[in-house]
Structures
1.
Amino acid sequence: MARAVFTDIPPSEDAEDGAAEPRVRRKPIIKGGATSSKYIAAATQGGSDRTYQEIFVDQIQDSRIKDRIDINEDIESLVESIRGNGQQIPIHVRVVQGDKPYEIVVGRRRLNAIRSLGHTKIKAFVSKLDDREAFIAQGVENSARLETSYIERARAAGQGIAAGFQQTDVSQFLNISKTMISFMVRTYETLGEDLVTRIGPARTIGRRKWDDLLKAMQKRSLSPAETAKLVDPEIADSAERFEALLKVVKNPQSVGSADQQDLSKVRKPSAAPQRRRFLNGAIKTMRKSNQLTIKTDETIPDELLEKVYEKLEELTFKLANKRKE
């Protein structure tokens, strides 16, 4: 049975991440963050129609405005927190028309974590909001968080304008001036969705460096599609990935001719280890430069590691033969 909720304010989306690895933080866009009057007003929008429920995850559709480039970033700690302690913070959805009756407003990472755990239901605040109210509520909540990057905000601004929202609404969404909105939208539209998502959130990269990238692309007459091919996906950290790309675009002579760019010749910053979990953590892997570690618990038969070892021998044999050719 649903019960009315009038004063609950959804905390930061990462509040239940547990012992997440340290991340570079910026100050909240909204002064006072989640305690500000502006945040509270947006968070309680539609309060009289707002209820707390458990709803089916397959009944929730995504928002048109993607406030994060990579919702899986650092999600492992959130998954483990929910696995161990349950979902502590409800998401926020609104009622919509269509095949799925709900649309996510706040809590995309929590929803993704719940889905990855195989849970069929999720705790949620359910509101009746129109498009503009949902847009503003999503934006103000994001502005009170600490981790959205410049390019993520530029992307949200571009998507907001493309979705038909007024520049005034987008300005309120991001809590910045209309002039800055124009700069952000131009940056996102010039780079394009594919290039932006290939680079990633790049949290420590501000407007000046993104402008440097645009100028370097213009100087070399590189299109976004051509530039996207120069992004090195093997660099795990998105800020380091950006820096490597900027170096390549600004200094093409460091990587040979324009037709034979070899990113492996560019000195890369050391990439952060890539960790993956399989079968609910029964198998754990860590991959970093020149190293791969595989760990299993007692539930995994030793035959699996034996097959991996045999495959490694086969690949090594092929590599040895190739070097002899």
2.
Amino acid sequence: MTMEKTEMIEIILNPNGACGQAGKVWDRIEPQFVHSQKPYRVHISHGEDDIPHLASTLSNQPCDIVVVGGDGSFNQAVNGIVDYEHVRMGLIPAGSGNDLVRGLGVDHDPSVLAETILKGNTVRKMDVGEVVYYDRCHETRREPVQQDGFVHHRFVISAGIGFDGQICHDAETSRYKKILNQIHMGRLIYLLTAIHTITSTERTRAWIKVDGKTMSYDRLLLCVVMNHPYEGGGFMFCPSADGNDGILDGCIANGLSQYDFFRIFPYALKGNHLKFQGVHPFSAHEVEITTEKPLWVHTDGETACCSNHIAVRLLKKKIQMLL
């Protein structure tokens, strides 16, 4: 059931996000909201950690929530939503990756997206994924434990364990990310980090269960599970991924040497890497991943911990999107 249009637009903004880019983007588009004469309220976040609380408070009643920020900020808002059936969401991108709008195939221009959002139409319903952490260590962010005794974290773009999780963690803590964001080249941080990280990344044994069928891998580099085609600032790891088809697409990289990586990785920009030996695509409703040692896990490019046992699946509810 599609919710009725709401009167108030709730804006979640971290003005310091993406090294101040989010605040600059909002300054640029706010006149459009003023001119529309539609009522709106701006809720200032002081970091991604308080966005779930803001989204939770706002979504206790029917509302439209628009996030001005990056994919990570949108992810945090999604994790705070109380009832997807009575909430519609929009995103004005201001991050370094911006893979969600890229995957949706919409214009990246904040002004164009603002106009679309202000029309107030439910454009699409989007799948939401979830990672269940059966084990957590090296936590950089504490998250609430659910009734089953485990931490659950939602995602809309992708979740991954291994090399891509390590890249996300290293990129987030890199001193170069701020510099690149300031010169509007933030997406390069993922490529530069990948080149640096591949030289030190250890491969490990892993057991991956895809819809009940388990396969073992002796030198796992990564396993990524995707709801949209792009991650890491434009790399098309799962070109067939569709955020509305009720299916997760994935990619496993096993047994790849450093030479293999440098040979194959450029092909991922256009999704042409799946033809190479050692790269294994799959589709599934649920994936369970067990590794011999804990590895970094990311959800929509954000890392909170390492784990050696996770499950990845889709929720039954979908997000109603304003773009």
3.
Amino acid sequence: MYTKKIGTIVSLNKSSFVIDIDNKLETYIIPNNIKHCIVVGDIVVLNNFNIIEKIIDRRNIVYRSLFSKSKFIAANIDQILIIIAVKPSFSVNLLQRILIEASRSSIESTIILNKIDLKESKHLNKILEMFSNLKINIVKICAHDTINTKLLLYKILKNKKNLFLGQSGMGKSTIIKTIYNDIDIKTREFSQKLNTGKHTTSFIKSYKISEINATVIDAPGFQTFGLNHVTEKEILKAFYEFEPFFQNCKYYNCKHIYEKECGIKEAIKNNIIYEYRYELYKNIMINK
């Protein structure tokens, strides 16, 4: 009898994928013709031979790119949580790049500041104030304070498919371990199914938190986030506070970088737009 199964990809490596079908995990080989097409979060149809026959249309897909190379991260996401920490220092440029990708994908974003038990620098406070004034959601936690961290994050994660992103060393793994009690057991299960051994941070994993009807997707830490796939218009869209001043630019196709008579530059002079934010824009536009 010919039957089809529908499930969600919860983890994968170069050769195999783990799929959740009716809350049961199964492992299958990735066919060569779709090896670079599927990502964690994809909803797929398997045929009678357990081969992926179709990828259900995605609501969105998050990825990074550098020149001609793309790294797909996850699909069908409701919220991106960007993990930063008081220490070690984090890259504001990298943070802004993730915010741009969230904007391009029409995904809600939240900044999680970890390690608030450590003393915050004046520079960090200025950065957080800037993003807060731009109405970007910021949540401050100490992952070692497990009770309060869990209470805070459960409210944010509830009823959503959540993607955790951030640089290495920001405490992302500790945070996820705090909100998902069985992470060690589940991670070992993924490792065994994918035959990846102990080094479990090298692949993307998805966990269900049934009590709040949420999914948490854990991606390995990274140090770069290329935006070669993002258009200049999409980058500009993420700097939404610029828009009211476009009408003051002399040229209709002003890029707000080299032009002298520019409404954005005038707004910076008048302290209406943050100069630091503009410098981020300029750097990313020139070095996607």
4.
Amino acid sequence: MNIEKELKKFFQGQILKNEPLKNHTSLQVGGPADFYLYPKDEKDLSNLIKFINQNKVHHFFIGTGRNILISDIGIRGIVIDLSKTFDKIEILNLDEIILKVGSGVTLKELIDFCIENSFGGMEKMSGIPSSVGGAYRMNAGAFGTEIADCTISVTLMDKFGEVKTYPNEELGFEYRKSKIQDIVLYGTLQFQKSNRVELEEIKKEILKKRNSKQPLEYPSAGSFFKKTKDGIPAGILIEKCGLKGKTIGGALVTEKHANFIVNAGNAKASEILALLRFVQTEVYKNFGVKLENEVKLIGFSDGELAEPY
């Protein structure tokens, strides 16, 4: 099947061919996508999803490009970017401070909007580099606040292009995960009337803490590993293994925070993956702990995805 020819029969959005995914990821690595698509609107997305399902076309949704490591060979098939499709924040009820927020809106945009309007509830999540859609999938949070805390419902699109809204309690929110498998279109969230100056101060303090601990000078995907089952931060175990400053090619375990593997200079995805596996092996060898990825690995072979234990 000629995918490009078939897409042009119905798709109204933007189509990019052989698009380098390093241009769309925070780690600045990743090979090309055969087709990189920006749907025009909800109907366009629905038609695209039906086409993908009917023809069994491999596809992947990308958000802010954070929290993922894409292989050097890239992604075959279609990559879908909703950042231009669902990018609006709408006030549904000002008295009760209920907002409808598109999945392509970034958390920064949402938090800035809330602070500007004196809406409190998510300011402690300042600095999390995620879209709203991505935040829902992993129930993003920080400093005791999660996106689930403010959520009334989430509107999803299934693989048949059908749309349904689910209340908070049906979405299976837990620490850094949810049961959401379908495409996030919108979230309906509720906030509290707050003092704008106080919200600004909280945001400022949170960002100060993040900047002091995180190596923002390098391209990064954020924390690479989740806390252990006992609640121990992965960075502590990595540091105790003496791995700060460890490099493989252009990949580096940073001195500032051991749970950050960054692109220190023209790194390949294969080098970052190799360093990730080396860290996992050393922590298991020293502590008997299997570190679980927080960063998702995309476009790798089954052999590359096999854990090193």
